[in-house]
Specification:
Blueprint: H1 14-18, H2 21-24, H3 46-76, H4 83-89, H5 91-112, H6 120-153, E1 156-158, E2 171-174, E3 177-180, E4 195-198, E5 203-206, H7 207-242, H8 249-274, H9 278-335, E6 339-343, E7 349-353
Parallel strand pairs: 2-5
Antiparallel strand pairs: 1-4, 2-3, 4-5, 6-7
Helix pairs in contact: 3-5, 3-9, 4-6, 5-6, 5-9, 6-7, 7-8, 7-9, 8-9
Length: about 350
């Protein structure tokens, strides 16, 4: 496969790369050779099939999270909500949307698109989408951070029994399970005193439930921060390889850092499993696999850069060797000494002619 990353090609200046065939009016190949028009799904290599399955399952999970955000919003919404309350309620949906777009961008840059597909217009659009995604992720950090902060400073301990809260339009929360507090349900909801009111006085739970709410909020915040650092490491690896860097401390540190951060994500997934949230564990596994696929694309690209560099080095050696051989042949002919001639004007006396000297006679 030829390197499908014109904006990351280390051998061609970026100004040159921008002047692609599409800008010059020439014919253009949009996708890399492995994804040409003659390529069918059945002919794709196994690794590409795995990526298709992983990305499809992530899309299914995305629908699940949208529905989950709608369910939580239904229990927490009230008339006093402001704009940031609505966006915070759908923080996971916004977060997942941004990560989907970033995953697609990385896949386009590191595998799908051919060199010729990176026109100025497309590169500008991709950069704009990337900036929007980063803004969405920044919102996620703010929303999760704000939620965690409020769980530690904005809550109220109640002395009343649960059934006396029926007229306050509350929902009882425990481990992300929500049940409306009604005259019928209040007696059947398992809880201990005292009760704690939180989430803008829309949710109520007991001490053990409140501890779980805090733990889950911290896990969400830690998870999004770990993913952001992983994203920055991948971006740095792409930029390094864009400059033709395939070895060195910076690249190795980025690779090692990703492994450590993935381990942190697995620990968070283990906690979710401990709390019984196996859909979260499944989703985290899929995302890790998805970005490991991007890592495999980077490894393949790095191998191509090194192969191209080796081929160029071999060609340079061949040219240098040929030049040296030609120079050696000329030197050998010169070292044989000046040619002797019998000049008739000298009566047959031997004369010398210095052919290689511009002033020779």
């Amino acid at each position: 496969m030829s390197s499908p990353r014109s904006i990351h090609d280390s051998t061609t200046p970026k100004d040159q790369l921008a002047a692609t065939p599409a800008d010059r009016g020439d014919s253009q190949v949009l996708f890399s050779p492995e994804l040409s028009s003659r390529t069918t799904l059945l002919s794709l290599p196994p690794r590409q099939w795995i990526k298709i399955v992983v990305y499809s399952l992530l899309l299914v999970n995305f629908v699940h999270y949208v529905l989950n955000d709608l369910n939580v919003m239904r229990h927490a919404v009230h008339a006093g909500w402001k704009w940031h309350d609505w966006t915070s309620a759908f923080a996971t949906t916004i977060d997942e949307s941004a990560w989907f777009m970033l995953l697609l961008l990385f896949e386009l840059e590191t595998y799908l698109l051919s060199d010729e597909a990176f026109t100025r217009t497309r590169v500008a659009i991709m950069h704009a989408v990337r900036v929007i995604c980063y803004l969405f992720l920044a919102h996620t950090v703010y929303a999760f951070g704000d939620t965690t902060y409020k769980l530690y400073v904005d809550y109220e301990v109640l002395d009343e029994p649960l059934c006396q809260l029926v007229d306050r339009d509350l929902s009882f929360a425990r481990n992300l399970v929500y049940e409306e507090v009604t005259q019928t349900s209040c007696a059947s909801i398992a809880h201990q005193s005292p009760l704690i009111l939180f989430e803008q006085k829309q949710l109520v739970t007991d001490r053990s439930g409140f501890r779980i709410e805090r733990e889950l909020a911290l896990a969400d915040l830690a998870e999004v921060l770990l993913w952001l650092v992983i994203l920055l490491l991948i971006e740095s690896m792409v930029r390094l390889q864009n400059r033709g860097v395939t070895t060195g401390r910076a690249l190795q540190s980025a690779k090692t850092g990703k492994v450590v951060l993935y381990a942190g994500l697995w620990l968070i997934a283990a906690y979710w499993g401990y709390r019984g949230h196996w859909v979260f564990v499944w989703d985290e596994t899929l995302w890790i696999l998805g970005f490991m696929a991007i890592g495999a694309n980077l490894d393949e690209w790095r191998a191509e850069i090194e192969a191209d560099a080796g081929a160029n080095s071999d060609r340079s050696s061949e040219i240098s060797s040929e030049f040296s051989s030609e120079s050696g042949s000329e030197s050998d002919s010169d070292s044989e000494g000046p040619e002797l001639h019998k000049g008739p004007e000298h009566g047959g006396a031997a004369t010398t002619t210095a052919y290689d000297s511009p002033g020779g006679v």
